## 1
Amino acid sequence: MGFSTVFPHLEVFPEVNTNTIRYNQTSTTFNVDIMMKDADPERYIAGVELLLFYNNTFLDIVDISHGDFFERYTSLVYYYFEVSRELGRVTIASAILLPATSYWPNGNGKIATLKFNATYDLKSYPSVLQSQLNITVAVDLGMTSYFVDTYAKEFPYDPAIGGCIELRMKMHGDVNLDGIVNAGDAVLLGLAFASEPSDPDWNDRQMKTWTAT
Ligand SMILES: [Ca+2]
């Protein structure tokens, strides 16, 4: 039996996570998943390890929970999570301790869910903040791959697909939510002015932006 020509890879989901901070909010929480993709059952995948980097000036990781990628095949799985807040880095590892007898993990599945808290400082932050979510191999631990098989042997992988978190501050009068209050917003407001929810030119988002306090 030969290996498939497709190598597994890790992926951030959703790839772009857009969040809006409302006028009276200073923080918001949301989840980001780390997914396994295209695992080949003939590689006997038994362990995963990765580092994920985030922008720690406005993001914090407040919770990590493991996914079910390995647990669909065995009940004994080891998990390791470590957050380095100073570095904006999280280490995620999991491994099968008791291999299943029939099927090896394959296909797609969830490795972990990260719960982020984003804090917004109205005085010093721009209206749009972004953080890349970059996945890398944990080379400082001696690894050259994200994956090991049941013999603790590393195997090839396709490039990891990182993600992005975007945080937008809603400002009074910013009708089109581009972070600037200018004549363009006034035009949009003018178009919707005095309309009712039943009218064809009613724009629910625009009117709420204008009327919210
Ligand atoms: Ca605007």
Note: The radius of gyration is 22 Å.
## 2
Amino acid sequence: MSFIKGFRNEVQYNGLKNQGATCYLNAVLQCLFMTPEFREAVESYEAPGDCGEENLLLQLQKLFTQLSEKAATTGGITKSLGIRSVFEQQDAVEYYRKILKAVGTHASKVFEGKMNNITKCGTCGNKIIETNTFISILLSIDNGNDKYDMEKSLKTFFEHSKLEEDDWMYCEGCERKTETETWSEIYEYPTVLALHLKRFDFDYIQMRYEKNECRLDVPLSLPEEDNRPRYDLYAVINHKGGYSGGHYDTIIRSYENGIWYRFDDYSVTQTSESSLENSSLPYMLMYRKSALNPGNIPHPMRILLIGPSRAGKSTVGNIILGGNYFLCKSGSETVTKSSMVKTVGKVTVMDTPNLFSLNKSSWVKEMQKLSDPGPNVILWVTPISKFSEQQQGLFHTFKKRLDSRTTKRMMIIFTNGRQLKEFVQPIDRFISDHRKLCKVVRCCQNRYHVIDITDGHNYTSELLEKLSEMVTLKEATAITPMQLKCLRKRSL
Ligand SMILES: Nc1nc2c(ncn2[C@@H]2O[C@H](COP(=O)(O)OP(=O)(O)O)[C@@H](O)[C@H]2O)c(=O)[nH]1
Ligand SMILES: [Mg+2]
Ligand SMILES: [Zn+2]
């Protein structure tokens, strides 16, 4: 995606007109505009011919086009959202949620994570797990008059709690209501983690909403912890004033030039992160999952690269490790003559020559070199256009030579992905149109990734992300030698 490109200095950001009291909407829209994945999804949206003017994605597209060039107006958006009175202040978080629901998952997926809500019976230990998608996490503020500690509050959110006896749940195993423990865990971390501070709470004595104006130092990053990847702050929606009135603005760090800006309706000014220290204004915070590199992945792993000559194995190895560790030159000759193992950070890559060009005894020798400890993941590298019957044969021969524990964790890396554009076909169509390829992809549990080194895109983080998902911590630390069946069976 284009946001990984180098910083641009010449970018200029534009404001949004306030229609009356629509600062809550402006604050949200600027955050969405400054989230590259969301912006790209909106820009690439193709509105169906019969779609009406009330289509929100279409309106966002028009707005973003305008906003890239000059200050913009939000009339189309308020209409499409069914906002009747533009003079009535609304809640920014509520509108963040409304907009994401309305645009559909293609555009909103960058904000989506999965949460498990777990209830456990205290008697028999029976657990019920319910998985839900979330687009923000609501953090309570119960610190009295002290300064608010957001990280502590985030920890509290995931703490286990025992229910009061009145709330105990019926356990199917025990066939009665039993002591119940509940908690939540994040099962899939979102690319953008949106945290919403519960500043507004209903006061039953006064019978009205009260605002908690406690101060906090907004953490600029959430460090890596247990299973949680590191997150870096890039947007803060501020609210100043009381419940029904007040004013919203947004502080955003540009992904294009790294500079912090304050977006306040029409006005856009440069600011710095110091405005986020000891402030009583922050209401919603957006954190971006930091790009993965071999040093910060959740747990160590070993990756074996295989495939035909000049498929791009060494190239893929270098992409994963983020440097030029394996030799790969242009020309027709194979440059990798024997296997090489390289470790950077927590990642070990085993690069191989074309194993299928070797005679059996050399093959066994090469594989033995790599088998103890064996790989956690095997990547079958192949240029997209060159997938042939012969390659399918080689794939299956390879699978047969190894034990199934090893081959359960294979993924295909298609190199020269650019050629898909020439075929004018999306990858899933390309695969389903080639029956043989389809079979191989299925053998890899439908895991594949398309790359191309010529498109200037940085694939390191996304490859590491996919690879990390394939291996659990337990698997990564249990060192299993790769079983070579050919050592046992003479027939291979
Ligand atoms: N255009 C293009 N060239 C690639 C791609 N991947 C690898 N290559 C080139 O293909 C050649 C062979 O790559 P190499 O990694 O040495 O292949 P190996 O023999 O499998 O290790 C090199 O010149 C690479 O630069 C790709 O995605 N697109
Ligand atoms: Mg090579
Ligand atoms: Zn029970």
Note: Residues 301-488 form a domain with the Rossmann fold fold (CATH 3.40.50.300).
